[in-house]
From TrEMBL:
Keyword Nucleus: no
GO-annotated cellular components: plasma membrane
Protein's organism: Solea senegalensis (Senegalese sole)
TM regions (residue ranges): 818-843, 965-987, 1047-1072
Domain Ion transport: residue ranges: 833-1084
Organismal lineage: Eukaryota, Metazoa, Chordata, Craniata, Vertebrata
Bias type Polar residues, positions: 1233-1248
Region (Disordered), start-end ranges: 1-32, 1230-1278
Domain TRPM SLOG: 134-358
Protein name: Transient receptor potential cation channel subfamily M member 5
Length: 1278
C-alpha cells in the first residue's frame, strides 16, 4: 500500500502527524492562539476528509476487532468495503470516529508538549497566602470553544450547574457591610451549594478582591474536597502587574508570583484566591476585547449541557450579577441581553445598578429622566460625548425587562440562590409558555432542591405539563433523593402506574451508591450469579472498562434475592415472570436482553418504589411511597422487617441508628388502631386476609417476621387471638366450666357453654354471599370460615330437614367445635403432660427394673410409647407443615425456636438413657441420664405456663435475670479462683490429690459464700490434734490425711475476711442491684413480650391435633388416612383467609381511608405543635413587618406627591403673576378652582426620590426650577 494512498483497512495506521497545531492552522497563522488545545469538530471533519481523500494518517491501529471506546462492543466492520461502520449499540460511525479522534488527539497533544513557555501553566502565589492557580494566555480572537475545553478537559473542572458573571464593582475600594455579607453569605454560598462557576476580572482590587476573600473563607470552612468554589478570572494581559513572572512557567515548573495591594491605576495584581485565569492579549486597535471575550465565552457555556446526578442533563444557565458599575458597563450589558442572558441587579450598590432600579420602579424611562439620573449619579459625565449613547443603551436595556431582576438584600430576606433561580425562570417565562421550554429551569430547580420555586414559579398554572414531559425529571428526583419533587410531580400529572416499568426500576437500582449496604448486598448476589452461570468476561480494549468491570449493572434477579433474605416467603415471586403453560418453571429478570419484559409496567409500583427507598434507608422517600400505596399495615411491617435486618448488617453506626429509629412498626400500629376503632370485624379480617402485594402473606405473618412485639400487644390483635383461642365458644366462658365439660363431656350439649357462631349455622352455603350487598353479608363472610362444614346439609336436601338429622348434626357439631378449640387442646395437653411427668416419676423412683429380661415393666413400656408419640408430634411440627418450603428450611425454622431445642434435647437424652439402661454395665449410667432428662421435661412446663396472664410476664423477667446471673458469675469466679488457689497453696501444699485440690480450691470457697466456714480446718488456733502426714504416698493411699500448714496462717484468715467482704457484701448486693434494675426496665415491657409469646403459643396449639399424647397417634393416623383419600383439612382458616374479590377490594379501600384519616391526624398534630406554632407566628410577624414597611413607603410617596403638588401650585402662582403683569389678554374666563376632594389618577402617582423633588424645587443652589420639570412628572401635563 502506497504511503499517500492508503485507506483505512485492516491493520492500517492513522496519524495526524501532518498538522502540528490542528487541522487547517499553524503557529505562524495564529501565533497567540491557545496552543495544543484541539478543537474536536476540526479534528473530526479532517478525519472524515482524510478517509475520503485516502490519506495516510497513522494514529493508532483500527482493525476488524476494534472495540468501541464507549461501551466496549466490537465495532461493525464491512468486509465488502473494508471500512468501519460504527458501534451498533451506542453511536453511529460519526460518533464512533468522534470518540476515536478525541482520545487520539489528546495523545497527540501530550506528545507535542503543548505547554509552551508563558502560554499555559501554573502559578505559585507566594506571600501570606500560599496557593496555586492555573492560567492560560490567549489572544482576543481565540475561539471560546478552546477555552472551555481547556477548563473542563485539560484542567479537569466539572461542568458547572450555573455560571455567575460578576459585573461592575471595580471602583468599590470600601464596601458596605451588607454588600460584603451578600458576597460572603450569598453569592459564594450559592456557588458552593449549586456547583457554580464565578467569573470575575481576577484582579486584586475593588469588589473582586472582597469576593476572593469570601472564597478563601468558604474554602477554609469547607470539610469536603469535592465541594469547592470555582472562581475564574478573565483579565486583560496588559493590566496585570508583574506579568513578566508568568512567562517563566514551564511544564513542571510553575511561575512564582507575589500579589500586591496596589492603588487605583492602570495595572493590578492577580488575586491569589482565584483558581483559574484566562489572560487576554488585547489588540491596541480594539479596546474592550476582553469584555467581548467574556460575552462570547458566556454565550458558548450557555449552549453546553451538564448532568445533575441522574440520567438527564440541561443547558448550563448563565447569569450576570451587576454591582454598582460605571456607564461603560452598559455596552457589555446590552450585548449580554442580546444573547438572552439574564441579569440580576443588586439594588443599593450605587452606579448604573441604582439608575436601572430607579427607572424600573418608576415604570417610565423617557430620555430627559434618564439623562438627568445619569448626570446626578455621575457628575463627571457632564462633559462626556457618550452620554447620549448611554441614554439610548439604558432605554434599550430597560425594554428587555424580562431579563432584569432586582434584588435588595436590605429589604428582602430571600437567599441569593432563590433569587437567581427566580431570575432564570422569569427570563424563560417571557419567551414561551410551552412546557418543554421550562424543562431546563425545572431540572435546575431539581438540581438545587428548590421545590418552593418550582411550586410558585413553574407549577403555578401558567404552563400545561404532560406526564411525558416530567418523566426525565421524575427519574432524577428519585435517584437524587428529592421526595418533595417526587410528590410535586405526582400531584402534577405523573402516573406511577404508567411511569414505572421494570426497566426504570432496574435503572434505579443501578444508581445505588457504591458505599451503601444495599450495593454490597447486590454485589454479593451478583457475584454468586456469575459463579453459578460460569460466565467469563471478555476483556475490552486497553484502557476500557465495560460496565461489568466497573460498576456492575444489577438486575432485578439480584434484587429479588436480597429481598428474599429479608422477607423470606413474603416476597415470593417478586420480579418473576411465570409462563402460563408451565407454571412450575419461573424465569427471573437475569438477562439484559429481555427488553420487552423490561418495558412492561410494574404491577405494584408504589410497593416497588417503597422497597427501593427502604433498602437505601431513604426514610422520607419511603414514607411518601408508603402513604400513597395500598395495604399500609402490611407494607409498614415489611419495611420494619427490612430495616431491622439491615441495621444488624450495617457497619456504620449513624446509618444503623437511623434504621433503628424508623417508625414503621409504629405506623403499622397506629393505622391498625385507626382501623380497629372504626370497625372491629373488618380489623380482624385485615389481620388474616391474604395480601396481594406481599405474596399472599397475612399481616400476622409479616408482624411475626418483623418481630413486631408492640403490634401484637395491641388490643385489637389480642382480641382476635382470644377469639381464635376459644374457637367457636364465646370468649367470656369461665375456665371452671371448661374444666368441668372437659372431664364430663356430656355437658357440652347443655347450655353450660355457649357457642358464638350458632346464629350463623343456618346459612345456605357460600353462594348467598356472592353479591355482598349488605353489611350483614359482609360481616358473615368476615367472621366465618370459607370452607363449608362437612356437617352442613346440602342445599335443597329434603332428608336434611328431618328432626333426627338435625339432632345428629347438632350433637356432632358441638362435639367437634368443643374439642377442636385451641383452649381445649391446650387443656388436654397440660393435663396429659402432668400425667406424663407423674408416670416418669413413678418409673424413676418405684419401678425402674433391671435390664432385660427382668425389665422393663409395663409402666415403663407405657412411658416409652408416650415418648414415641411425642417424637411423632415433633416430626409433624417440623416437617409436615402447610408451608411450601424444602425440608432443610423447615428443619431450620423448627430449630430456631428455643422450646423446640429443649424438646430435641429431652428426646435425645431419653433415647440415650433408654439405650444405656438396656445394657448391664451401663445400667446406672442410663438411670443417671434419665434422671437428668426428667429435669429437662419438667422445665418444659415453663412454656405451658407462659399463657397465664400473671405467670407469663414473670417468666420473661426470670429469663432476663438469668443473663444477669451469668455476668455475675464471671466476677464471682475471678474472686473465687483467686481466693481458693491462694488458700490451698497456704494450707495444703503437700496434698497431691487432684480431686481434693479442686474441692478445696473451688468448692469450699463457694460454700463460704453461703456461710459454711469450717474454722477448724482454716484457723490454726482451732485445729484439733490429728494423726496426719506430709508423705504424698500415704496421702494418696488414704492411710493418713495431710497435715495442714500453719505457717502464715494469719494471711489465710485475712484472705478469708477479704473474700467474705467482697463476695457476701459487694458482689451479692451488686447482683441484687442488677436484678432490681432489670426488673424495673423489663417490668414496663413484660406485657408486650408476654403478648407476643401468647401469640406464638396460640398459633402452636391452633395447629395441633385435638388429642393430646399418647392419644395423639390417633389423630396422626386419621390425618394420614384423610391425605390418602382427599385433600387434608387445614386449620389455618382462622389465621389465613382468602376473601372474595369484591369484598377484598372493599376491605383494601376501607384500609386506605383509615390510613388517610391517620395521616390527617398526624398532619394536624404537626401543625398544632409548639414548634410549628412558633414558626407560624414568626411568619406572621414577618408579614406584618413587611406590611408596616409598605405603609412607610406609601407615606413617603404621599409626602413626595404633596411636595410635588405644592411645587406645581407655586409654579402656577408664579405663572399667574407673570400673566397678570403682562399686557396679553385672553378671550376666555379663567377656569374654576377644582374641589379639594378631586381624585388624582393612580397612573399619575409616580413615586420619586426626595432628592429629585428638591432639585425640581430649585434647591440645587440656583433657586430656579430644574431641567425638564414637566417631562419628569407626566401627570403635570394633564
Amino acid at each position: 500500500m502506497a504511503p499517500n494512498s492508503v485507506g483505512i483497512g485492516p491493520g492500517d495506521s492513522l496519524t495526524f502527524a501532518s498538522l502540528p497545531d490542528g487541522p487547517g492552522s499553524s503557529p505562524e497563522e495564529k501565533p497567540s492562539a491557545l496552543t495544543g488545545v484541539v478543537q474536536l469538530e476540526e479534528w473530526r471533519s479532517f478525519f472524515i476528509s482524510a478517509m475520503q481523500e485516502r490519506k495516510d494518517i497513522p494514529l493508532g491501529t483500527l482493525q476488524p476487532q476494534t472495540r468501541c471506546l464507549r461501551c466496549g462492543n466490537v465495532l461493525q466492520w464491512s468486509q465488502e468495503h473494508s471500512v468501519l461502520l460504527g458501534c451498533p449499540c451506542c453511536s453511529t460511525v460519526d460518533k464512533t470516529l468522534e470518540n476515536v479522534t478525541r482520545g487520539l488527539a489528546r495523545r497527540v497533544n501530550q506528545e507535542k508538549s503543548h505547554w509552551a513557555a508563558g502560554r499555559v501553566g501554573d502559578i505559585d502565589f507566594t506571600g501570606s497566602t500560599k496557593t496555586r492557580g492555573k492560567f492560560m494566555r490567549v489572544c482576543s480572537d481565540t475561539d471560546p470553544v478552546l477555552i472551555y475545553q481547556m477548563l473542563t478537559e485539560e484542567w479537569g473542572l466539572a461542568p458547572p450547574h450555573l455560571v455567575v458573571a460578576l459585573v461592575g464593582g471595580d471602583e468599590l475600594a470600601q464596601m458596605k457591610p451588607w454588600l460584603r455579607d451578600t458576597l460572603r453569605k450569598g453569592l459564594v454560598k450559592a456557588a458552593q451549594s449549586t456547583g457554580a462557576w464565578i467569573l470575575t476580572n481576577g484582579l486584586r482590587f475593588g469588589i473582586t478582591k472582597h469576593l476572593g476573600q469570601a472564597v478563601r473563607d468558604h474554602s477554609l470552612a469547607s470539610t469536603s474536597s469535592k465541594i469547592r468554589v470555582v472562581a475564574i478570572g478573565i483579565a486583560p494581559w496588559n493590566m496585570i502587574h508583574n506579568r513578566e513572572a508568568l512567562l517563566t512557567a514551564k511544564v513542571d515548573e510553575p511561575a512564582a508570583y507575589k500579589p500586591h495591594d496596589l492603588p487605583h491605576g492602570s495595572v493590578y495584581s492577580l488575586d491569589s484566591h482565584h483558581s483559574h485565569f484566562v489572560l487576554v492579549e488585547e489588540d491596541p486597535s480594539r479596546p474592550g476585547a476582553t469584555s467581548e471575550m467574556r460575552v462570547k465565552l458566556l454565550k458558548h457555556i450557555s449552549l453546553q449541557r451538564t448532568g445533575y446526578g441522574g440520567a438527564g442533563s440541561f443547558e448550563i444557565p448563565v447569569l450576570c450579577l451587576l454591582v454598582h458599575g460605571e456607564p461603560k458597563i452598559l455596552k457589555r450589558m446590552y450585548k449580554g441581553i442580546g444573547n438572552s442572558t439574564p441579569w440580576l441587579i443588586l439594588a443599593g450598590s450605587g452606579g448604573v445598578a441604582d439608575i436601572l432600579v430607579t427607572l424600573m420602579n418608576r415604570g417610565c424611562w423617557d430620555t430627559d429622566s434618564v439623562h438627568e439620573l445619569l448626570l446626578d449619579t455621575f457628575p463627571n459625565a457632564h462633559h462626556s460625548t457618550d452620554i447620549s449613547n448611554w441614554v439610548k443603551l439604558i432605554q434599550k436595556i430597560l425594554d428587555h425587562g424580562h431579563l432584569l431582576t432586582v434584588h435588595d438584600p436590605e429589604q428582602e430576606s430571600s437567599e441569593l440562590d432563590t433569587v437567581i433561580l427566580k431570575a432564570l425562570v422569569k427570563a424563560c417565562k417571557s419567551q414561551s409558555q410551552e412546557a418543554q421550554d421550562f424543562l431546563d429551569e425545572l431540572k435546575l430547580a431539581v438540581a438545587w432542591n428548590r421545590v418552593d420555586i418550582a411550586k410558585s414559579d413553574i407549577f403555578n398554572g401558567d404552563v400545561e405539563w404532560k406526564a411525558c414531559d416530567l418523566e426525565e425529571v421524575m427519574m432524577d428526583a428519585l435517584i437524587n433523593d428529592k421526595p418533595d419533587f417526587v410528590r410535586l410531580f405526582v400531584d402534577n400529572g405523573v402516573n406511577l402506574g404508567e411511569f414505572l416499568t421494570y426497566g426504570r426500576l432496574q435503572e434505579l437500582y443501578w444508581s445505588v451508591s457504591e458505599k451503601s449496604l444495599l450495593h454490597n448486598l447486590l454485589l454479593k448476589k451478583y457475584e454468586e450469579k456469575q459463579i453459578l452461570l460460569g460466565a467469563a468476561r471478555t476483556p475490552g480494549p486497553p484502557g476500557h472498562h465495560p460496565p461489568e468491570q466497573g460498576k456492575p449493572r444489577f438486575t432485578l434477579y439480584e434484587v429479588a434475592k436480597v429481598l428474599k433474605d429479608f422477607l423470606h416467603d413474603s416476597c415470593k415471586g417478586f420480579y418473576q415472570k411465570i409462563p402460563t403453560e408451565k407454571p412450575a418453571k419461573g424465569r427471573l429478570f437475569h438477562q439484559q436482553k429481555n427488553l420487552a419484559e423490561l418495558e412492561e409496567r410494574c404491577e405494584h409500583p408504589w410497593r416497588d418504589l417503597f422497597l427501593w427507598a427502604v433498602l437505601q434507608n431513604r426514610q422520607q422517600m419511603a414514607n411518601y411511597f408508603w402513604a400513597m400505596g395500598p395495604e399500609a399495615v402490611a407494607a409498614a411491617l415489611a419495611g420494619c422487617k427490612i430495616l431491622k435486618e439491615m441495621a444488624r448488617l450495617e457497619s456504620e453506626a449513624e446509618s444503623a441508628r437511623s434504621m433503628k429509629e424508623a417508625k414503621y412498626e409504629q405506623f403499622a400500629l397506629d393505622v391498625f388502631g385507626e382501623c380497629y376503632s372504626n370497625s372491629e370485624d373488618r380489623a380482624y379480617a385485615l389481620l388474616v386476609r391474604r395480601t396481594h402485594c406481599w405474596s399472599k402473606s397475612t399481616v400476622l405473618n409479616l408482624a411475626t417476621e418483623a418481630d413486631a412485639k408492640s403490634f401484637f400487644a395491641h388490643d385489637g390483635v389480642q382480641a382476635l387471638l382470644t377469639k381464635i383461642w376459644w374457637g367457636a365458644m364465646t370468649t367470656d366462658t369461665a375456665i371452671s366450666k371448661l374444666v368441668v365439660s372437659f372431664f364430663c363431656p356430656a355437658l357440652i350439649w347443655t347450655n353450660l357453654i355457649k357457642f358464638s357462631d350458632e346464629e350463623l349455622d343456618n346459612r345456605n352455603g357460600r353462594e348467598q354471599f356472592v353479591e355482598q350487598d349488605s353489611l350483614d353479608t359482609e360481616k358473615a363472610l368476615l367472621l366465618t370460615d370459607d370452607d363449608d362444614d362437612p356437617l352442613d346439609p346440602a342445599p335443597g336436601d329434603p332428608a336434611a330437614q328431618s328432626c333426627a338429622s338435625v339432632w345428629w348434626r347438632f350433637l356432632l357439631r358441638r362435639w367437634r367445635r368443643f374439642w377442636s378449640a385451641p383452649v381445649t387442646v391446650f387443656l388436654g395437653n397440660v393435663i396429659m403432660y402432668f400425667a406424663f411427668l407423674f408416670l416418669f416419676t413413678y418409673v424413676l423412683l418405684l419401678d425402674f427394673r433391671p435390664p432385660p429380661p427382668a425389665g422393663p415393666g409395663a409402666p415403663e413400656l407405657i412411658l416409652y410409647f408416650w415418648v414415641f408419640t411425642l417424637v411423632l408430634e415433633e416430626l409433624r411440627q417440623s416437617f409436615f407443615t402447610d408451608e411450601e418450603m424444602n425440608i432443610l428450611k423447615k428443619f431450620k425454622l423448627y430449630v430456631e425456636d428455643n422450646w423446640n431445642k429443649c424438646d430435641m434435647v429431652a428426646i435425645l437424652l431419653f433415647v440415650a438413657g433408654v439405650s444405656c439402661r438396656m445394657v448391664d454395665h451401663t445400667y446406672e449410667a442410663g438411670r443417671t441420664v434419665l434422671a437428668i432428662d426428667f429435669m429437662v421435661f419438667t422445665l418444659r412446663l415453663i412454656h405451658i405456663f407462659a399463657i397465664h396472664k400473671q405467670l407469663g410476664p414473670k417468666i420473661i423477667i426470670v429469663e432476663r435475670m438469668m443473663k444477669d446471673v451469668f455476668f455475675f458469675l464471671f466476677f464471682l469466679s475471678v474472686w473465687l479462683i483467686a481466693y481458693g488457689v491462694a488458700t490451698q497453696a497456704l494450707l495444703h501444699p503437700n496434698d497431691p490429690r487432684i480431686d481434693w485440690v479442686f474441692r478445696r480450691a473451688l468448692y469450699r470457697p463457694y460454700l463460704h459464700i453461703f456461710g459454711q466456714i469450717p474454722l477448724e480446718e482454716i484457723d490454726a488456733a482451732r485445729m484439733p490434734e490429728m494423726n496426719c502426714t506430709n508423705d504424698s504416698e500415704e496421702i494418696i493411699s488414704g492411710l493418713r490425711p495431710p497435715c495442714p500448714n500453719v505457717y502464715a496462717n494469719w494471711l489465710v484468715i485475712l484472705l478469708l475476711v477479704i473474700f467474705l467482704l467482697v463476695t457476701n457484701v459487694l458482689l451479692l448486693n451488686l447482683l441484687i442491684a442488677m436484678f432490681s434494675y432489670t426488673f424495673q426496665v423489663v417490668q414496663g415491657n413484660t406485657d408486650i413480650f408476654w403478648k407476643f409469646q401468647r401469640y406464638n403459643l396460640i398459633v402452636e396449639y391452633h395447629s395441633r391435633p385435638a388429642l393430646a399424647p399418647p392419644f395423639i397417634i390417633i389423630s396422626h393416623l386419621s390425618q394420614i388416612l384423610f391425605s390418602l383419600v382427599k385433600q387434608p383439612e387445614s386449620k389455618q382458616e382462622h389465621l389465613e383467609r382468602e376473601l372474595p374479590v369484591g369484598l377484598d377490594q372493599r376491605l383494601i379501600t376501607w384500609e386506605t381511608v383509615q390510613k388517610e384519616n391517620y395521616l390527617a391526624k398526624l398532619e394536624r398534630q404537626h401543625w398544632e405543635s409548639s414548634e410549628e406554632r412558633l414558626k407560624s407566628t414568626s411568619s406572621k410577624v414577618q408579614s406584618l413587618l413587611r406590611i408596616v414597611g409598605g405603609v412607610k413607603d406609601q407615606e413617603k410617596r404621599l409626602a413626595s406627591m404633596e411636595a410635588q403638588i405644592r411645587y406645581c401650585g407655586e409654579v402656577l402662582s408664579w405663572m399667574a403673576e407673570c400673566f397678570a403683569q403682562s399686557t396679553l389678554k385672553c378671550g376666555k374666563e379663567a377656569p374654576n378652582v377644582p374641589s379639594s376632594k378631586a381624585s388624582i389618577s393612580n397612573d399619575a402617582c409616580q413615586s420619586q426620590p426626595e432628592k429629585d423633588v428638591k432639585q425640581e424645587r430649585g434647591e440645587d443652589g440656583t433657586g430656579h426650577p430644574g431641567y425638564g420639570a414637566n417631562k419628569k412628572f407626566p401627570y403635570i401635563d394633564e
